[in-house]
User: What shape does this take?
Amino acid sequence: MAIMLPYTNSAGVEAKEGYHRIDHIRYNYENHSSMAEVKVYLSKLQAAAGKDPIDVYQTTFTMNTGVNKNIAEQAYDALKTKSVVTDSKGRNISIDFSKGKDD
Assistant: This one.
């Protein structure tokens, strides 16, 4: 699973075929919040070849433990509703996920 969407990182590296793949998800049992870490690759081929991502960002979402839907699907569904994510240096990034394609 991934979302294909153009992306430009803070150094100006442009990924016209940006491949946004969730790397891991953390769930906080105390407040029921979840954080997904997303790695962005230049392309699907780069990700499949094990190349380094051009950026990493995080997004939070509320996991619904009472539904019959796996965690990754919930995270991707939540990611598609976001317009701002936080990169690995704490900077907010505006991004329009409504233009992304599922892969």
Residues 33 and 57 are 17 Å apart (CA to CA).
